[in-house]
Protein backbone atom coordinates (compact mmCIF):
# COMPACT_ATOMS: atom_id res chain seq x y z
CA UNK A 1 0.00 0.00 0.00
CA UNK A 2 1.09 3.58 -0.61
CA UNK A 3 -0.08 6.53 1.41
CA UNK A 4 1.37 10.04 1.40
CA UNK A 5 4.38 8.73 -0.45
CA UNK A 6 5.11 5.98 2.10
CA UNK A 7 5.49 2.34 1.18
CA UNK A 8 3.96 -0.32 3.41
CA UNK A 9 4.80 -3.99 3.06
CA UNK A 10 2.09 -5.94 4.80
CA UNK A 11 2.90 -9.64 5.04
CA UNK A 12 0.31 -12.42 4.88
CA UNK A 13 1.17 -13.34 8.43
CA UNK A 14 0.05 -10.04 9.91
CA UNK A 15 -3.45 -10.01 11.37
CA UNK A 16 -6.08 -7.54 10.19
CA UNK A 17 -5.94 -5.75 13.53
CA UNK A 18 -2.16 -5.37 13.43
CA UNK A 19 -2.27 -4.18 9.82
CA UNK A 20 -4.72 -1.42 10.70
CA UNK A 21 -2.63 -0.47 13.73
CA UNK A 22 0.45 -0.03 11.52
CA UNK A 23 -1.54 1.98 8.96
CA UNK A 24 -2.99 4.32 11.59
CA UNK A 25 0.26 4.86 13.49
CA UNK A 26 2.19 5.73 10.34
CA UNK A 27 -0.51 7.91 8.81
CA UNK A 28 -2.06 10.21 11.39
CA UNK A 29 0.65 11.15 13.85
CA UNK A 30 1.98 13.90 11.60
CA UNK A 31 0.61 17.18 12.95
CA UNK A 32 -1.08 16.14 16.17
CA UNK A 33 -4.52 16.73 14.72
CA UNK A 34 -7.22 14.09 14.35
CA UNK A 35 -8.62 13.06 10.98
CA UNK A 36 -11.68 14.99 9.69
CA UNK A 37 -13.98 12.57 11.54
CA UNK A 38 -13.62 9.47 13.71
CA UNK A 39 -14.87 7.01 11.07
CA UNK A 40 -12.24 4.52 9.87
CA UNK A 41 -14.38 4.06 6.77
CA UNK A 42 -15.40 7.56 5.72
CA UNK A 43 -12.47 9.70 6.93
CA UNK A 44 -9.28 7.66 7.22
CA UNK A 45 -7.96 4.12 7.17
CA UNK A 46 -6.82 1.41 4.79
CA UNK A 47 -10.26 1.02 3.19
CA UNK A 48 -10.67 4.61 1.94
CA UNK A 49 -6.98 4.70 1.01
CA UNK A 50 -7.29 1.56 -1.11
CA UNK A 51 -10.53 2.55 -2.84
CA UNK A 52 -9.33 6.03 -3.68
CA UNK A 53 -5.93 4.99 -5.01
CA UNK A 54 -7.47 2.32 -7.20
CA UNK A 55 -9.79 4.93 -8.72
CA UNK A 56 -12.83 2.68 -8.24
CA UNK A 57 -15.15 5.67 -8.72
CA UNK A 58 -14.92 8.54 -11.19
CA UNK A 59 -15.76 11.00 -8.37
CA UNK A 60 -13.97 10.60 -5.02
CA UNK A 61 -17.09 11.81 -3.24
CA UNK A 62 -19.07 8.75 -4.37
CA UNK A 63 -17.32 6.35 -1.99
CA UNK A 64 -17.68 8.45 1.16
CA UNK A 65 -21.40 8.89 0.40
CA UNK A 66 -22.09 5.15 0.21
CA UNK A 67 -24.28 3.61 2.94
CA UNK A 68 -23.04 0.64 4.94
CA UNK A 69 -24.99 -2.63 4.89
CA UNK A 70 -23.33 -3.83 8.12
CA UNK A 71 -21.89 -2.15 11.24
CA UNK A 72 -18.54 -0.36 10.78
CA UNK A 73 -16.44 -2.77 12.85
CA UNK A 74 -17.81 -5.75 10.94
CA UNK A 75 -17.12 -3.99 7.65
CA UNK A 76 -13.53 -3.11 8.65
CA UNK A 77 -12.84 -6.69 9.76
CA UNK A 78 -14.29 -8.05 6.53
CA UNK A 79 -12.14 -5.67 4.49
CA UNK A 80 -8.91 -6.67 6.22
CA UNK A 81 -9.75 -10.35 5.76
CA UNK A 82 -10.41 -9.62 2.09
CA UNK A 83 -7.06 -7.84 1.78
CA UNK A 84 -5.18 -10.68 3.48
CA UNK A 85 -6.72 -13.22 1.11
CA UNK A 86 -5.50 -11.17 -1.86
CA UNK A 87 -2.01 -10.58 -0.44
CA UNK A 88 -2.96 -6.88 -0.21
CA UNK A 89 -2.98 -6.60 -4.02
CA UNK A 90 -6.61 -7.14 -5.02
CA UNK A 91 -7.74 -6.33 -8.54
CA UNK A 92 -10.08 -3.46 -9.26
CA UNK A 93 -12.86 -5.89 -10.12
CA UNK A 94 -12.39 -7.76 -6.84
CA UNK A 95 -12.64 -4.51 -4.87
CA UNK A 96 -15.75 -3.52 -6.80
CA UNK A 97 -17.42 -6.83 -5.94
CA UNK A 98 -16.46 -6.44 -2.29
CA UNK A 99 -17.89 -2.91 -2.21
CA UNK A 100 -21.16 -4.04 -3.82
CA UNK A 101 -21.51 -6.66 -1.10
CA UNK A 102 -20.91 -4.21 1.75
CA UNK A 103 -22.41 -0.86 0.66
CA UNK A 104 -25.67 0.50 -0.67
CA UNK A 105 -25.62 3.30 -3.29
CA UNK A 106 -24.91 6.94 -2.44
CA UNK A 107 -28.07 8.78 -1.48
CA UNK A 108 -29.79 5.70 -0.04
CA UNK A 109 -30.45 7.56 3.22
CA UNK A 110 -32.49 10.28 1.52
CA UNK A 111 -36.16 10.39 0.63
CA UNK A 112 -37.56 12.64 -2.07
CA UNK A 113 -40.12 14.80 -0.32
CA UNK A 114 -42.93 16.92 -1.75
CA UNK A 115 -43.18 19.96 0.54
CA UNK A 116 -46.68 20.67 1.81
CA UNK A 117 -46.18 24.42 1.53
CA UNK A 118 -45.38 24.40 -2.19
CA UNK A 119 -47.49 26.98 -4.05
CA UNK A 120 -48.21 26.76 -7.77
CA UNK A 121 -48.59 30.53 -8.11
CA UNK A 122 -46.71 32.47 -5.42
CA UNK A 123 -47.77 36.10 -5.22
CA UNK A 124 -44.47 37.58 -6.42
CA UNK A 125 -45.15 36.24 -9.94
CA UNK A 126 -47.76 38.97 -10.31
CA UNK A 127 -44.99 41.56 -10.01
CA UNK A 128 -42.87 40.05 -12.80
CA UNK A 129 -43.95 42.08 -15.82
CA UNK A 130 -42.04 40.33 -18.60
CA UNK A 131 -43.97 37.30 -19.85
CA UNK A 132 -40.91 35.14 -20.51
CA UNK A 133 -39.39 35.95 -17.13
CA UNK A 134 -42.71 35.18 -15.44
CA UNK A 135 -42.66 31.70 -17.03
CA UNK A 136 -38.98 31.34 -16.06
CA UNK A 137 -39.77 32.16 -12.43
CA UNK A 138 -42.67 29.72 -12.40
CA UNK A 139 -40.43 26.96 -13.77
CA UNK A 140 -37.81 27.65 -11.09
CA UNK A 141 -40.47 27.53 -8.40
CA UNK A 142 -41.35 24.00 -9.53
CA UNK A 143 -37.71 22.89 -9.24
CA UNK A 144 -38.01 23.11 -5.43
CA UNK A 145 -40.13 19.94 -5.56
CA UNK A 146 -37.28 18.10 -7.31
CA UNK A 147 -34.67 19.27 -4.79
CA UNK A 148 -36.54 18.77 -1.51
CA UNK A 149 -35.40 15.87 0.70
CA UNK A 150 -35.82 14.27 4.11
CA UNK A 151 -33.49 11.81 5.80
CA UNK A 152 -34.75 8.28 6.39
CA UNK A 153 -35.58 7.57 10.04
CA UNK A 154 -33.23 4.59 9.88
CA UNK A 155 -30.34 7.07 9.96
CA UNK A 156 -31.57 8.40 13.30
CA UNK A 157 -31.66 4.86 14.67
CA UNK A 158 -28.36 3.75 13.11
CA UNK A 159 -26.22 6.83 12.34
CA UNK A 160 -23.08 4.68 12.25
CA UNK A 161 -24.18 3.14 8.93
CA UNK A 162 -23.88 6.36 6.97
CA UNK A 163 -21.72 9.45 6.58
CA UNK A 164 -24.81 11.66 6.49
CA UNK A 165 -25.60 13.89 9.49
CA UNK A 166 -29.16 13.27 10.62
CA UNK A 167 -31.54 16.22 10.83
CA UNK A 168 -35.27 15.78 11.46
CA UNK A 169 -36.74 18.33 9.08
CA UNK A 170 -36.95 18.59 5.33
CA UNK A 171 -34.37 20.58 3.41
CA UNK A 172 -33.45 21.58 -0.13
CA UNK A 173 -30.27 20.21 -1.66
CA UNK A 174 -28.10 21.98 -4.20
CA UNK A 175 -28.42 19.27 -6.85
CA UNK A 176 -26.10 17.15 -8.96
CA UNK A 177 -23.42 15.36 -6.92
CA UNK A 178 -24.48 17.29 -3.83
CA UNK A 179 -27.12 15.05 -2.29
CA UNK A 180 -26.97 16.49 1.24
CA UNK A 181 -27.49 20.00 2.60
CA UNK A 182 -24.71 22.57 2.28
CA UNK A 183 -24.37 25.41 4.72
CA UNK A 184 -23.79 28.63 2.80
CA UNK A 185 -25.72 27.37 -0.24
CA UNK A 186 -28.77 27.20 2.01
CA UNK A 187 -28.81 30.97 2.58
CA UNK A 188 -29.59 31.66 -1.10
CA UNK A 189 -31.87 28.65 -1.31
CA UNK A 190 -33.87 30.03 1.63
CA UNK A 191 -34.04 33.45 -0.04
CA UNK A 192 -35.72 31.76 -3.00
CA UNK A 193 -38.02 29.64 -0.85
CA UNK A 194 -39.23 32.72 1.01
CA UNK A 195 -40.00 34.53 -2.26
CA UNK A 196 -42.04 31.46 -3.22
CA UNK A 197 -43.87 31.62 0.13
CA UNK A 198 -42.51 28.24 1.24
CA UNK A 199 -42.17 29.50 4.79
CA UNK A 200 -42.43 26.11 6.53
CA UNK A 201 -39.68 24.60 4.39
CA UNK A 202 -37.44 27.61 5.05
CA UNK A 203 -38.12 27.37 8.78
CA UNK A 204 -37.44 23.61 8.72
CA UNK A 205 -34.01 24.23 7.19
CA UNK A 206 -33.21 26.86 9.81
CA UNK A 207 -34.39 24.55 12.60
CA UNK A 208 -32.16 21.79 11.25
CA UNK A 209 -29.18 24.12 11.43
CA UNK A 210 -30.07 25.24 14.93
CA UNK A 211 -30.11 21.61 16.07
CA UNK A 212 -26.70 21.10 14.51
CA UNK A 213 -25.32 24.16 16.35
CA UNK A 214 -26.79 22.77 19.55
CA UNK A 215 -25.06 19.44 18.94
CA UNK A 216 -21.70 20.52 17.52
CA UNK A 217 -21.35 24.21 18.41
CA UNK A 218 -21.13 25.16 14.73
CA UNK A 219 -22.50 24.13 11.33
CA UNK A 220 -20.24 21.97 9.16
CA UNK A 221 -19.50 22.72 5.51
CA UNK A 222 -22.16 20.17 4.51
CA UNK A 223 -24.36 17.44 5.91
CA UNK A 224 -21.73 14.70 6.09
CA UNK A 225 -19.51 13.66 8.98
CA UNK A 226 -16.41 14.11 6.86
CA UNK A 227 -17.09 17.87 6.95
CA UNK A 228 -17.06 18.04 10.76
CA UNK A 229 -13.66 19.73 11.05
CA UNK A 230 -14.64 22.79 9.01
CA UNK A 231 -17.59 25.13 8.61
CA UNK A 232 -18.66 27.57 5.88
CA UNK A 233 -19.30 31.34 5.84
CA UNK A 234 -21.64 31.71 8.86
CA UNK A 235 -24.95 32.69 7.29
CA UNK A 236 -27.41 31.15 9.77
CA UNK A 237 -28.14 34.55 11.30
CA UNK A 238 -28.66 35.90 7.76
CA UNK A 239 -31.14 33.09 7.11
CA UNK A 240 -33.00 34.01 10.29
CA UNK A 241 -33.03 37.69 9.32
CA UNK A 242 -34.47 36.86 5.87
CA UNK A 243 -37.07 34.58 7.47
CA UNK A 244 -38.32 37.12 10.02
CA UNK A 245 -38.36 39.91 7.41
CA UNK A 246 -40.80 37.79 5.39
CA UNK A 247 -42.84 36.21 8.19
CA UNK A 248 -42.48 38.57 11.19
CA UNK A 249 -42.11 35.44 13.32
CA UNK A 250 -40.17 37.23 16.03
CA UNK A 251 -40.87 34.54 18.64
CA UNK A 252 -38.98 31.97 16.57
CA UNK A 253 -36.03 34.34 16.31
CA UNK A 254 -36.08 35.12 20.04
CA UNK A 255 -36.25 31.43 20.96
CA UNK A 256 -33.21 30.75 18.76
CA UNK A 257 -30.96 33.68 19.59
CA UNK A 258 -28.84 31.79 22.13
CA UNK A 259 -27.82 29.33 19.42
CA UNK A 260 -27.03 32.17 17.02
CA UNK A 261 -24.76 33.52 19.74
CA UNK A 262 -23.18 30.09 20.17
CA UNK A 263 -22.22 29.93 16.51
CA UNK A 264 -20.99 33.53 16.49
CA UNK A 265 -18.77 32.82 19.51
CA UNK A 266 -17.41 29.68 17.84
CA UNK A 267 -16.07 31.81 14.99
CA UNK A 268 -14.74 34.50 17.32
CA UNK A 269 -12.92 32.04 19.59
CA UNK A 270 -11.75 29.49 16.99
CA UNK A 271 -11.09 31.53 13.87
CA UNK A 272 -9.70 34.95 14.84
CA UNK A 273 -6.17 36.34 14.96
CA UNK A 274 -4.81 39.75 15.91
CA UNK A 275 -3.96 42.00 12.98
CA UNK A 276 -2.83 45.57 13.60
CA UNK A 277 -4.37 45.43 17.06
CA UNK A 278 -7.75 44.15 15.79
CA UNK A 279 -9.35 40.71 16.00
CA UNK A 280 -10.19 39.45 12.54
CA UNK A 281 -11.33 36.02 11.39
CA UNK A 282 -9.85 33.69 8.78
CA UNK A 283 -10.78 30.27 7.44
CA UNK A 284 -8.99 27.39 9.14
CA UNK A 285 -9.42 23.64 9.40
CA UNK A 286 -8.71 21.47 12.44
CA UNK A 287 -7.90 18.05 11.01
CA UNK A 288 -5.13 16.01 9.42
CA UNK A 289 -4.99 14.22 6.11
CA UNK A 290 -6.66 14.87 2.77
CA UNK A 291 -10.31 15.78 2.31
CA UNK A 292 -12.24 12.50 2.32
CA UNK A 293 -14.57 13.71 -0.44
CA UNK A 294 -11.57 14.65 -2.62
CA UNK A 295 -9.06 12.20 -1.19
CA UNK A 296 -7.47 11.15 -4.47
CA UNK A 297 -7.15 14.72 -5.73
CA UNK A 298 -5.49 15.91 -2.52
CA UNK A 299 -3.08 12.96 -2.42
CA UNK A 300 -2.04 13.63 -6.00
CA UNK A 301 -0.83 17.13 -5.15
CA UNK A 302 0.23 16.30 -1.60
CA UNK A 303 2.68 13.68 -2.87
CA UNK A 304 4.55 16.42 -4.76
CA UNK A 305 5.78 17.82 -1.42
CA UNK A 306 9.02 16.38 -0.08
CA UNK A 307 8.15 16.25 3.63
CA UNK A 308 5.21 15.08 5.70
CA UNK A 309 4.98 18.50 7.34
CA UNK A 310 4.61 20.27 3.99
CA UNK A 311 2.02 17.74 2.87
CA UNK A 312 -0.04 18.24 6.01
CA UNK A 313 0.20 22.00 5.70
CA UNK A 314 -1.09 21.68 2.14
CA UNK A 315 -4.01 19.50 3.28
CA UNK A 316 -4.88 22.07 5.95
CA UNK A 317 -4.80 24.93 3.45
CA UNK A 318 -6.99 23.00 0.99
CA UNK A 319 -9.56 22.24 3.70
CA UNK A 320 -9.51 25.84 4.91
CA UNK A 321 -10.34 26.90 1.35
CA UNK A 322 -13.18 24.38 1.50
CA UNK A 323 -14.44 26.20 4.57
CA UNK A 324 -14.52 29.43 2.56
CA UNK A 325 -16.85 27.84 0.00
CA UNK A 326 -14.57 29.14 -2.75
CA UNK A 327 -12.73 25.93 -3.49
CA UNK A 328 -10.53 26.71 -5.32
CA UNK A 329 -9.20 30.05 -6.47
CA UNK A 330 -6.04 32.09 -6.97
CA UNK A 331 -7.59 34.22 -4.23
CA UNK A 332 -5.95 31.81 -1.79
CA UNK A 333 -2.53 31.66 -3.47
CA UNK A 334 0.50 33.30 -1.86
CA UNK A 335 3.62 32.46 -3.85
CA UNK A 336 7.21 33.03 -2.76
CA UNK A 337 6.94 36.67 -3.90
CA UNK A 338 3.76 37.25 -1.89
CA UNK A 339 1.60 37.35 -5.04
CA UNK A 340 -1.49 35.43 -6.17
CA UNK A 341 0.00 33.68 -9.20
CA UNK A 342 0.83 30.00 -9.05
CA UNK A 343 -0.94 26.70 -8.55
CA UNK A 344 -2.71 24.86 -5.75
CA UNK A 345 0.73 24.12 -4.29
CA UNK A 346 0.86 27.84 -3.42
CA UNK A 347 -2.39 27.81 -1.45
CA UNK A 348 -2.19 29.66 1.88
CA UNK A 349 -5.83 30.16 2.89
CA UNK A 350 -5.08 30.18 6.63
CA UNK A 351 -2.86 33.24 6.22
CA UNK A 352 -5.36 35.42 4.39
CA UNK A 353 -7.88 37.59 6.24
CA UNK A 354 -10.97 37.41 3.99
CA UNK A 355 -13.22 40.43 3.53
CA UNK A 356 -16.55 38.57 3.37
CA UNK A 357 -16.03 36.42 6.49
CA UNK A 358 -15.50 39.47 8.65
CA UNK A 359 -18.29 41.42 6.98
CA UNK A 360 -20.61 38.47 7.65
CA UNK A 361 -19.54 38.28 11.30
CA UNK A 362 -20.37 41.98 11.60
CA UNK A 363 -23.80 41.18 10.16
CA UNK A 364 -24.19 38.32 12.63
CA UNK A 365 -23.58 40.65 15.55
CA UNK A 366 -26.03 43.23 14.17
CA UNK A 367 -28.75 40.60 13.68
CA UNK A 368 -28.24 39.11 17.13
CA UNK A 369 -28.45 42.60 18.61
CA UNK A 370 -31.65 43.22 16.67
CA UNK A 371 -33.25 40.01 17.94
CA UNK A 372 -32.35 40.85 21.53
CA UNK A 373 -34.10 44.15 20.88
CA UNK A 374 -37.29 42.25 19.94
CA UNK A 375 -37.00 40.47 23.30
CA UNK A 376 -36.44 43.85 25.02
CA UNK A 377 -33.14 42.55 26.40
CA UNK A 378 -31.37 45.91 26.27
CA UNK A 379 -28.18 44.65 27.93
CA UNK A 380 -27.64 41.98 25.30
CA UNK A 381 -28.73 44.31 22.54
CA UNK A 382 -26.04 46.82 23.51
CA UNK A 383 -23.45 44.07 23.98
CA UNK A 384 -23.84 42.82 20.43
CA UNK A 385 -24.06 46.32 19.03
CA UNK A 386 -20.65 46.94 20.59
CA UNK A 387 -19.31 43.68 19.12
CA UNK A 388 -20.58 44.75 15.71
CA UNK A 389 -18.88 48.13 16.02
CA UNK A 390 -15.58 46.45 16.94
CA UNK A 391 -15.74 44.32 13.79
CA UNK A 392 -16.79 47.34 11.70
CA UNK A 393 -13.73 49.25 12.90
CA UNK A 394 -11.45 46.28 12.24
CA UNK A 395 -12.79 45.76 8.73
CA UNK A 396 -12.48 49.41 7.79
CA UNK A 397 -9.06 49.97 9.40
CA UNK A 398 -7.36 46.78 8.21
CA UNK A 399 -9.20 45.72 5.05
CA UNK A 400 -10.16 49.03 3.44
CA UNK A 401 -7.71 49.75 0.61
CA UNK A 402 -7.70 53.50 0.12
CA UNK A 403 -5.58 53.33 -3.03
CA UNK A 404 -8.07 51.03 -4.75
CA UNK A 405 -11.17 52.48 -3.13
CA UNK A 406 -12.56 49.14 -1.92
CA UNK A 407 -12.00 46.49 0.74
CA UNK A 408 -9.43 43.78 0.00
CA UNK A 409 -8.11 40.66 1.72
CA UNK A 410 -5.04 40.94 3.95
CA UNK A 411 -1.92 38.74 3.85
CA UNK A 412 -0.64 38.03 7.39
CA UNK A 413 2.52 36.30 6.13
CA UNK A 414 3.78 39.43 4.38
CA UNK A 415 1.69 41.91 6.40
CA UNK A 416 0.17 43.60 3.40
CA UNK A 417 -3.08 44.20 1.60
CA UNK A 418 -3.83 41.90 -1.33
CA UNK A 419 -4.81 44.19 -4.24
CA UNK A 420 -6.55 41.48 -6.26
CA UNK A 421 -10.11 41.57 -7.52
CA UNK A 422 -12.72 39.28 -6.01
CA UNK A 423 -16.49 39.84 -5.83
CA UNK A 424 -16.08 39.44 -2.07
CA UNK A 425 -14.36 42.83 -2.04
CA UNK A 426 -17.92 44.20 -2.22
CA UNK A 427 -19.16 42.14 0.75
CA UNK A 428 -19.17 45.00 3.30
CA UNK A 429 -21.71 46.77 1.07
CA UNK A 430 -23.90 43.63 1.15
CA UNK A 431 -23.85 43.35 4.96
CA UNK A 432 -23.82 47.14 5.46
CA UNK A 433 -20.45 46.95 7.19
CA UNK A 434 -19.58 50.53 6.29
CA UNK A 435 -20.15 54.02 7.62
CA UNK A 436 -23.53 55.01 6.16
CA UNK A 437 -22.72 58.71 6.60
CA UNK A 438 -19.97 58.28 4.01
CA UNK A 439 -22.02 56.29 1.52
CA UNK A 440 -21.78 58.91 -1.24
CA UNK A 441 -17.98 59.06 -0.94
CA UNK A 442 -17.80 55.26 -0.88
CA UNK A 443 -20.05 55.13 -3.96
CA UNK A 444 -17.65 57.44 -5.83
CA UNK A 445 -14.72 55.16 -5.01
CA UNK A 446 -16.59 51.93 -5.77
CA UNK A 447 -17.74 53.22 -9.16
CA UNK A 448 -14.19 54.28 -10.01
CA UNK A 449 -12.95 50.81 -9.02
CA UNK A 450 -15.55 49.17 -11.26
CA UNK A 451 -14.60 51.46 -14.16
CA UNK A 452 -10.87 50.87 -13.73
CA UNK A 453 -11.31 47.10 -13.84
CA UNK A 454 -13.93 47.31 -16.62
CA UNK A 455 -16.25 45.06 -14.62
CA UNK A 456 -19.25 46.36 -16.54
CA UNK A 457 -17.89 44.86 -19.76
CA UNK A 458 -18.80 41.24 -18.97
CA UNK A 459 -22.05 40.09 -20.61
CA UNK A 460 -22.51 36.98 -18.44
CA UNK A 461 -21.99 38.38 -14.95
CA UNK A 462 -19.07 39.49 -12.82
CA UNK A 463 -16.18 36.97 -12.98
CA UNK A 464 -14.89 35.51 -9.76
CA UNK A 465 -11.36 36.70 -10.41
CA UNK A 466 -9.39 38.29 -13.22
CA UNK A 467 -6.84 35.47 -13.31
CA UNK A 468 -7.30 32.26 -15.30
CA UNK A 469 -5.98 29.19 -13.48
CA UNK A 470 -8.44 26.48 -14.48
CA UNK A 471 -9.83 26.53 -10.92
CA UNK A 472 -13.60 26.86 -10.77
CA UNK A 473 -13.62 30.01 -8.61
CA UNK A 474 -11.40 31.92 -11.04
CA UNK A 475 -11.92 33.73 -14.35
CA UNK A 476 -14.01 33.34 -16.43
CA UNK A 477 -16.53 31.65 -14.13
CA UNK A 478 -19.27 33.68 -12.48
CA UNK A 479 -21.34 32.46 -9.54
CA UNK A 480 -24.87 33.27 -8.39
CA UNK A 481 -24.10 34.13 -4.73
CA UNK A 482 -21.39 36.57 -5.77
CA UNK A 483 -23.74 38.35 -8.19
CA UNK A 484 -26.37 38.59 -5.47
CA UNK A 485 -23.82 39.92 -2.99
CA UNK A 486 -22.63 42.64 -5.37
CA UNK A 487 -26.06 43.66 -6.69
CA UNK A 488 -27.64 44.01 -3.26
CA UNK A 489 -24.48 45.65 -1.96
CA UNK A 490 -24.52 48.33 -4.65
CA UNK A 491 -28.18 48.99 -3.91
CA UNK A 492 -27.45 49.28 -0.18
CA UNK A 493 -25.38 52.41 -0.83
CA UNK A 494 -28.67 54.18 -1.63
CA UNK A 495 -26.96 56.17 -4.37
CA UNK A 496 -28.82 56.54 -7.66
CA UNK A 497 -25.72 55.65 -9.68
CA UNK A 498 -24.96 52.40 -7.84
CA UNK A 499 -28.63 51.46 -7.69
CA UNK A 500 -28.91 51.93 -11.45
CA UNK A 501 -25.86 49.72 -11.97
CA UNK A 502 -27.34 47.12 -9.62
CA UNK A 503 -30.47 46.97 -11.79
CA UNK A 504 -28.38 46.62 -14.95
CA UNK A 505 -26.33 43.80 -13.49
CA UNK A 506 -29.43 42.09 -12.11
CA UNK A 507 -31.08 42.15 -15.52
CA UNK A 508 -27.91 40.88 -17.18
CA UNK A 509 -27.61 37.98 -14.73
CA UNK A 510 -31.27 37.01 -15.06
CA UNK A 511 -31.00 37.13 -18.86
CA UNK A 512 -27.90 34.94 -18.86
CA UNK A 513 -29.48 32.30 -16.62
CA UNK A 514 -32.67 32.49 -18.68
CA UNK A 515 -30.89 31.93 -21.99
CA UNK A 516 -29.02 28.90 -20.60
CA UNK A 517 -32.26 27.52 -19.16
CA UNK A 518 -34.16 28.03 -22.41
CA UNK A 519 -31.49 26.23 -24.43
CA UNK A 520 -30.77 23.32 -22.07
CA UNK A 521 -33.65 23.10 -19.60
CA UNK A 522 -31.15 23.28 -16.73
CA UNK A 523 -29.97 25.66 -14.02
CA UNK A 524 -26.24 25.48 -13.42
CA UNK A 525 -23.97 25.69 -10.42
CA UNK A 526 -21.83 28.30 -12.18
CA UNK A 527 -21.90 30.33 -15.37
CA UNK A 528 -19.36 32.08 -17.58
CA UNK A 529 -18.79 35.83 -17.44
CA UNK A 530 -17.63 36.22 -21.03
CA UNK A 531 -20.77 34.86 -22.65
CA UNK A 532 -24.45 35.68 -22.18
CA UNK A 533 -26.09 32.33 -21.44
CA UNK A 534 -22.95 30.22 -21.09
CA UNK A 535 -22.32 27.89 -18.17
CA UNK A 536 -18.97 27.45 -16.45
CA UNK A 537 -16.38 24.71 -15.99
CA UNK A 538 -13.00 23.96 -14.47
CA UNK A 539 -12.12 22.64 -11.02
CA UNK A 540 -12.24 19.11 -9.65
CA UNK A 541 -15.57 17.96 -11.06
CA UNK A 542 -17.91 18.54 -13.99
CA UNK A 543 -20.35 21.45 -13.86
CA UNK A 544 -23.41 20.46 -11.83
CA UNK A 545 -27.05 21.13 -12.56
CA UNK A 546 -29.93 21.68 -10.15
CA UNK A 547 -29.14 24.17 -8.85
CA UNK A 548 -30.17 25.41 -5.45
CA UNK A 549 -28.43 28.73 -5.04
CA UNK A 550 -28.70 29.69 -8.71
CA UNK A 551 -32.47 29.20 -8.50
CA UNK A 552 -32.72 31.13 -5.23
CA UNK A 553 -30.76 34.11 -6.53
CA UNK A 554 -32.83 34.44 -9.71
CA UNK A 555 -36.10 34.21 -7.77
CA UNK A 556 -34.91 36.79 -5.24
CA UNK A 557 -33.76 39.17 -7.98
CA UNK A 558 -37.04 38.78 -9.88
CA UNK A 559 -38.90 39.52 -6.67
CA UNK A 560 -36.89 42.73 -6.27
CA UNK A 561 -36.58 43.82 -9.90
CA UNK A 562 -39.38 41.97 -11.69
CA UNK A 563 -41.21 45.17 -12.63
CA UNK A 564 -38.13 46.59 -14.35
CA UNK A 565 -36.11 43.79 -15.97
CA UNK A 566 -36.71 42.63 -19.54
CA UNK A 567 -35.94 39.43 -21.42
CA UNK A 568 -34.40 39.46 -24.90
CA UNK A 569 -37.09 40.58 -27.36
CA UNK A 570 -39.19 41.78 -24.43
CA UNK A 571 -41.33 44.24 -26.41
CA UNK A 572 -43.47 41.38 -27.73
CA UNK A 573 -43.52 39.50 -24.45
CA UNK A 574 -45.19 41.99 -22.14
CA UNK A 575 -48.39 40.95 -20.43
CA UNK A 576 -51.16 43.34 -21.56
**Low-confidence residue ranges:** 1-29
Q: Report the sheet-strand fraction.
A: 5-15%
The helix tally amounts to: 20
Instruction: Report the helical percentage.
Output: 40-55%
Average predicted confidence as pLDDT: 93
Number of strands: 16
| Computed Rg | 24 Å
- Apparent shape: globular
Taking the sheet with the most strands, its summary is: 3 strands, antiparallel
The SS-based structural class is mainly alpha
First-to-last CA distance: 70 Å
Strand order within the widest sheet? 5-6-7
Brief rundown of the structure:
The protein is mainly alpha-helical and 576 residues long. The protein is built from 20 helices and 16 strands. The chain has helices at residues 16-27, 46-53, 60-64, 72-85, 92-102, 131-147, 153-157, 183-195, 199-216, 236-247, 250-271, 295-302, 308-324, 355-374, 378-399, 427-430, 439-453, 480-492, 496-520, 548-561, and strands at 2-3, 6-7, 67-68, 103-104, 110-112, 148-151, 171-172, 272-275, 278-281, 352-353, 400-401, 406-407, 410-411, 416-417, 477-478, 527-528.
Describe the structure.
The protein is 48% helix and 7% strand. With 576 residues, the chain is mainly alpha-helical. The protein has a 3-stranded antiparallel β-sheet. A hairpin with a 2-residue loop joins strand 8 (272-275) and strand 9 (278-281). Helix 14 (355-374) packs antiparallel against helix 15 (378-399) and helix 19 packs across helix 20. The longest helix is centred in the last third of the chain and has 25 residues, at 496-520. 53% of the residues are buried. The model is unreliable at 1-29 (pLDDT under 50).
